[in-house]
């Protein structure tokens, strides 16, 4: 017990407070900022058990259970938190040796997702498992091909394909973003030179504000092409924190010939009309949630129609995402939307297939 107490104290030195609360029970008070910190916490928790304990001539390996309660959602005072941590500990013990449980099941699931994403992404980085799928988009006027959006996938050795839904949040907020986006730019630019079509790539909010991203972008794109530009898709999120800076970066990007900027998922977040009038954006991508409601809701129809008119008056093109039916397609054409994208016209597919099907 003494040796264990020392090890636990060392693991959490400067990071938390440890105490022995009963016979073989210890408590740790740990401050976390982001949900990702929870995985660090679990690593620290495992530290004391890495090496066996020597008692006399015997080496003894120990295992443990842990129950975790989180302030403030699980309790606002120490007693409540402790009570709930203990109840989570009971759950953990029931589940078996080495198990850890959170009091709140939502957190437990979230944690499982984060850990899964972390493992998937680090494996993808190490073994080069990232791949681009291409989804075509078309001119609404004559349904001719206007370009492709590059969408990342992780394909493991057995051929299983993982969509960004399971890993993009971790990728964008974790330590591998830069490595990934370096790969993304390189791959997209190679593809662009090879297939000679417009290619859109999704850029995280973090990178777009990072001047070194711009520098690396510049170094990859030596030949800009006016006939089939590269489109950088960004989301409104980038304007929420640091508006001035985001606008400055976009203005800089727009100085490159043959590079356009698209505002992705328009209508889901910020969407202030005042800001819209000032944004240096070429294409407005109307979010799938609007397109979905087009046929049922007259109000949504009115909103979409006016977004398209406003964007057009501001000199922007519009693209409707997630077109899944003929009705949606016809409506958007009638509203003079510039481009259409969606499963009705073409799903994201591997590069070779996209080339074969659409070019
Ligand atoms: P997004 O940029 O809004 O991409 C469109 C998503 O909608 C894609 O999902 C696409 O497969 C899906 N989609 C397209 N048409 C339809 C349709 O008709 N119906 C429905 N239900 N869905 C449709 P995907 O490929 O799973 O990508 C999800 C998100 O992950 C993307 O949303 C984007 O935000 C992010 N993402 C994808 N690739 C990258 C990347 O290389 N870098 C970054 N930072 N984010 C990426
Ligand atoms: Ca996009
Ligand atoms: Ca989108």
Please, could you describe this protein's structure?
This protein is an alpha/beta fold and 359 residues long. The protein has helices at residues 2-11, 37-46, 78-95, 105-127, 168-173, 177-195, 205-208, 211-220, 237-241, 243-255, 273-278, 288-293, 298-313, 326-334, 351-358; strands spanning 16-22, 25-30, 53-55, 58-60, 66-68, 100-102, 130-139, 145-155, 161-162, 199-202, 230-235, 259-266, 283-286, 317-320, 339-341, 349-350. The strands form four sheets. Strands 7-8-10-11-12-13-14-15 form an eight-stranded mixed β-barrel, surrounded by five helices. A two-stranded antiparallel ribbon has the order 1-2. Strand 14, helix 14 (326-334) and strand 15 (339-341) form a beta-alpha-beta unit. Helix 6 (177-195) runs parallel beside helix 8. The relative contact order is 0.08. The mean pLDDT is 91.
Give descriptors for this structure.
8-stranded mixed beta barrel, two-stranded antiparallel sheet, binds ligand C2E, alpha/beta, binds calcium ion, 359 residues
């Amino acid at each position: 017990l003494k040796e264990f107490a020392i090890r636990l104290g060392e693991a959490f030195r400067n990071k938390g407070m440890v105490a022995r609360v009963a016979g073989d029970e210890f408590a740790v008070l740990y401050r976390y900022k982001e949900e990702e910190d929870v995985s660090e916490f679990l690593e620290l928790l495992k530290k004391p058990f890495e090496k066996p304990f020597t008692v006399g001539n015997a080496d003894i390996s120990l295992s443990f259970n842990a129950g975790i309660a989180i302030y403030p959602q699980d309790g606002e005072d120490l007693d409540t938190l402790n009570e709930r941590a203990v109840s989570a500990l009971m759950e953990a013990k029931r589940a078996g040796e080495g198990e850890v449980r959170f009091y709140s099941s939502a957190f437990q699931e979230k944690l499982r997702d984060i850990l899964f994403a972390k493992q998937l992404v680090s494996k993808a980085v190490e073994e080069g498992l990232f791949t681009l799928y291409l989804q075509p988009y078309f001119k609404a006027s004559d349904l001719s091909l206007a370009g492709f959006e590059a969408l990342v996938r992780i394909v493991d050795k057995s051929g299983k394909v993982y969509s960004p839904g399971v890993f993009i949040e971790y990728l964008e907020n974790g330590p591998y973003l830069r490595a990934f986006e370096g790969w993304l730019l390189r791959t997209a630019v190679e593809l662009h030179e090879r297939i000679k079509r417009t290619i859109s790539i999704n850029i995280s909010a973090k990178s777009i504000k990072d001047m070194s991203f711009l520098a690396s972008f510049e170094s990859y794109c030596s030949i800009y092409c006016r006939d089939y530009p590269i489109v950088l898709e960004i989301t409104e999120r980038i304007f929420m924190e640091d508006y001035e800076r985001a606008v400055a970066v976009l203005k800089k990007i727009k100085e490159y010939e043959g590079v356009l900027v698209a505002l992705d998922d328009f209508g889901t977040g910020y969407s202030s009309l005042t800001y819209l009038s000032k944004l240096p954006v070429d294409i407005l991508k109307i979010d799938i949630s609007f397109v979905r409601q087009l046929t049922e809701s007259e109000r949504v129809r009115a909103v979409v129609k006016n977004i398209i008119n406003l964007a057009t008056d501001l000199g922007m093109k519009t693209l409707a995402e997630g077109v899944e039916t003929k009705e949606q397609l016809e409506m958007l054409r009638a509203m003079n939307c510039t481009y259409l994208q969606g499963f009705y016209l073409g799903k994201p597919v591997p590069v070779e297939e996209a080339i074969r099907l659409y070019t």
